[in-house]
Amino acid sequence: MRTLSVSSGKGGVGKSNVVVNLAVALDRLGRRVMILDADLGLANVDVLLGLTPTHNISHVLDGTRRLDEVLVPGPGNIRIMPASSGVQHLTQLTQEQKILFVDLLDDMETDVDILLIDTGAGISDTVLYFNVAAQEKIVVVTPEPTSLTDAYAFIKVMFTRHGERFFRILTNAVADEKEGRAVFRKLSRVADHFLDGISLDYLGWIPRDPSVPEAVRRQKALLEVFPGAPASRAFEDIARRLNREAPTMPKGTIQFFWKRLLKM
After folding, report:
1. For 32, which DSSP code?
2. CB neighbours of 31 closer than 8 A, spacing ≥ 6?
3. Nearest alpha carbon to residue 9 among 142, 203, 194, 168
4. What's the burial of 238, exposed, middle or buried (CB within 10 Å: 0-12/13-18/19+)?
5. What's the rounded Cα separation, in Å, for the pair 128 and 111?
6. CB count in 10 Å sphere of residue 214
7. Average per-residue pLDDT in the chain?
8. Run of H or E including 157
9. 193: CB partners within 8 A, 6+ apart
10. Which of 65, 72, 230, 246 has the CA that lies 20 to 30 A from 193?
11. Taking the model in full, what pTM does it have?
């Protein structure tokens, strides 16, 4: 069982779109994938896929629904745990809610190969909470200076406050591979200079592609509606890399993930 968080320093960099399309690509490689929409107060995954879940994670946390009643099917065999929108109190989980998470998900390890966690943007406690618990941390960054600055701020907080050293960087909406690597080098140079012992790994790049916003407008995964688009091929390349590589952090099992959350 692998748990991968997908985060960004700022909003608007395509983080949720990355989660959805990586999930589709990994599903097509035969992995059993589940998406956890961990942007608990501002859900996006269901909107991107045109889903209208009757219930969401808030109903599990308040005890009115079981987990199996909340999970909704996504593209292929993907399962999605939807979040809620406009529910401010969910942005800060109580200790009781953390315990409930553990109880609900302890039995899911045999049913899921990869848990993709779509966190909120920024450096709120909830964002940091899910990132610290994940085995692997993917940070999405674009060429915009604000994206680079905020991605560094996120990495710095994770490093200085929680001792996290390993991050995988995915450059999104770049002109070509050259620009993608240039964006990574800028971020890596600053991190290496100011954060002694940090390790940033270049995961890959997604090209700026007009098919991406069109798929968003259609509320479908890009790989479903434009399978031959340049960005679709890039998502498939990254999924193949994730599929063949071992986790960067040997933390193991979904039980470890949720029980580690309890300690925060």
Report:
1. -
2. 113, 114, 243
3. 142
4. buried
5. 26
6. 14
7. 87
8. helix 145-162
9. none
10. 246
11. 0.89
